[in-house]
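Sat 14:20. Reprocessing the chain from the morning session after the first attempt stalled halfway. Input below, unchanged.
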Amino acid sequence: MQPAQRLSQNGKYALAAFQLILIAAAMVVFFPFNAENPGYHIDFDVYWTGTRFFLNGGYIYGKIPLLHHGTSLPFTYPPVALLVFVPFAILPYQLSSILFSLVSLLALYVVARYTFTAVRSYGVMVEDKPWHNVFLWVAIIVALFTAPVRFTFLFGQINLLLMMLVTIDCCTSRRRWWTGMLVGLTISIKLTPMVFLLYFVCRRDWKSVGMTLGSFLVYNLFALLVMPSTTRLYWTKIIRDSERIGAYHYCRNQSINGALARFGLHDSSRSTVWFIVALIVGLLIAVIVWQLVKAQQYFAALMLNGIAANLCSPISWDHHWTWIVPLVILLGVWAWKKIPTSSTQWVWWTLTGLGALILFTDPLRFLPMNGDKELSWTPIQHFFGESYTLWSLLTIIALLAVRPFSRLTNTPRTIKKTSEKAPVSLQ
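Finished this time. Tokens:
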């Protein structure tokens, strides 16, 4: 690398660091996550307290000590997650909580960069302009006010970190020998990312499928070596108890299973209906992901794959729906660029508007919840209470009906002629 190129690269890193500082400052000034207990993140407290308890010889899948504000919640993650949380658990709580928030902020920045690159692949902001970086960090600050991102920071959740790892693994510009290892790690931390094997299968990237499964096995064998009894217990018993995470019918469980539970279906019948509906929805999404991959729209395919994970999982709290944020942005770009034609433009504008409305207003907060109140919802309350699920199903139907894939296939070639600086695709 020439000195001038090195200086330019260092300048980009410095600018990125400056952007993160500005965003962090904005979070502190404009974004008090918890008015009653500023700086307190209850889910991170579970990670921190549970991991410390385990390091001191405690039984992690039993009742862990009370959290800092007197509540008691179970540790629900696989054993590998304990190893990930160890660096935070050995630090004082306040310091580790701040560091974890900064890691989540970095993850949000990385995902935003990939989103920005995907947007540019449609011919938007293809030339490098100084204001583009300003636009990026303003967009990140705006994203902080969407419900899934806001609650991720509020609770101290791991969603953005997992999203970053999956995005880096799946959307790097070239396939690396290690591609699949990060997805394997996310599956080891939280089982839901197993769904992202669909992305590699649709790309016919069998090497990455093997690397994902192989690395998942290695991570868990290492956990078995380090903590044999805990690992055996999790994989033979704890994994079957999904209600440790919470009640299926709770308002903020925005999966298909959650919707069925709120309609009052009993366990046996609900499980059967959920399996059938989730299978049908999963197959429809698989068709769309395959079509998007065929059109070389890898980032859009990955985001839709993320929606599949949210819809088909037994429990998907609303803060798990971070995947919806980039997807809403992409739909807005499709509307703007009239993909596939101007006659279907209204479809994408409608979905973009509805998606943004859900993300920024958080309609769930206006509904009765807790104490099984969800089981007595009126039809109109169900309409708003299943907002994430309904929006996702509408998006799936629209993608199957409008079929923008042929137009999307031609998009990268058009951009390449327009500007050599523009990213052609995220391969």
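Residues 343 and 402 are 10 Å apart (CA to CA).
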